[in-house]
Amino acid sequence: MKNTKSTFLLVGNNLAMDFINTELASQEGSINLLATEQDVYDWTEQVGIHLSNENNALDMAAVWSLRTALRALMVNQIDEQVWSIEAMEVLNIWLPLAPHQQQLSFDGGQLALQPLSEALTNEQLLGKIAQAGAELLTSPLSAQIKRCSNEKCILMFVDTSRSRKRRWCSMEHCGNRAKAANFYHANKS
Questions:
Q1: Among 19, 37, 87, 103, which residue's Cβ finds the most Cβ atoms within 10 Å?
Q2: Which residues contact 61 (CB under 8 A, 6 or more apart)?
Q3: Other beta carbons within 10 Å of 27
């Protein structure tokens, strides 16, 4: 299945969460939105990451392994489980490859800390995603990592709402469906 930009749900409020959310659940099973190299390049474009034109072939097994490891660690956090050593080892493979040299710049009218080189290699991309996940897990925001309240949805997010009572990955995707179902059952005669 060829993905278009509209297929990516950027509802996680964090780069690593949006990366995890490139795997969806359906009645038939899981849907991998990052099935090909082109899908990864489309996703990076949508999240605003520029990749180097000199990239070698992307190791898709590494992409999926990192996503699985990040998901496992986020689930460990949400469910207050023992940390997965195997998942931490996967992140530790990529963390040294994150672009560490940074510079201040203006991004959308706001001051932002950006990699010194705007174009990342494939390895730096995975390092940047691993770093975003590791920073989230070790920050106070880790207490706000949640999964969607829709039992059939596997998306996760960082609840940045003022009241910290966000329940759905997005109102458009799961929240409105739940409200419509509740309305239907309440008014069914």
A1: 19
A2: none
A3: 5
Q: Are 178 and 150 in contact (CB under 8 A)?
A: yes
Q: Is this prediction's pTM over 0.85?
A: no
Tell me the average pLDDT of the chain: 86
The string of pLDDT tens digits covering residues 85-106 is 999 999 999 999 998 877 888 8
Angstrom distances, CA of residue 145 to CA of 100, 131, 161, 163: 25, 16, 12, 14
Count of Cβ atoms closer than 10 Å to residue 89 Cβ: 10
> Helix axis angle, 122-137 relative to 85-94, nearest 10°?
130
What is the rounded CA–CA span in Å between residue 112 and residue 103?
8
With vertex at residue 59, the alpha carbon angle to CA 55 and CA 126, rounded to the nearest 5 degrees, is 75
Instruction: Please name which of 19, 112, 105 lies closest in space to residue 65, comparing C-alpha atoms.
Output: 19
